[in-house]
Amino acid sequence: MALRKDKELKIYYSISEVAQMFGVNESSLRYWEKEFPFIAPRKTVGNVRQYRKEDIDNVRLVYHLVKEKGLTIAGARQRLKQEKDLEATNVDIIERLKEIKEELLSIRKELDYMT
């Protein structure tokens, strides 16, 4: 779910790339755009969505509330209305903890291999 370091050089991501990052359908992303106005990818003349890092961070926030915490769209909207900054911080912390866990598991695997 996190942006890979090699992809951080990219400025825009297509809707299919963002959908793949989160394991959701493109239609879900389009629906979330309607329900959460702060998800607002740039659209080209041909109406092709181009997601920036900020857009992806906003999608990550909605994904966390809806898919990981199990809130309804209305519940997620209400939560964000009340405490968007707090939820964004929580999502950042959770993402970092997941990365640390992956690093630790990788180190453990290497240590197990050495013994």
Automatic annotation (TrEMBL):
Keyword Mitochondrion: no
Domain HTH merR-type, first and last residues per copy: 12-82
DNA-binding among keywords: yes
Coiled coil: 83-110
UniProt entry keywords in alphabetical sequence: Coiled coil, DNA-binding
PANTHER family registered for this protein in UniProt: BLL5018 PROTEIN (PTHR30204:SF15), REDOX-CYCLING DRUG-SENSING TRANSCRIPTIONAL ACTIVATOR SOXR (PTHR30204)
Protein name as catalogued: MerR family transcriptional regulator
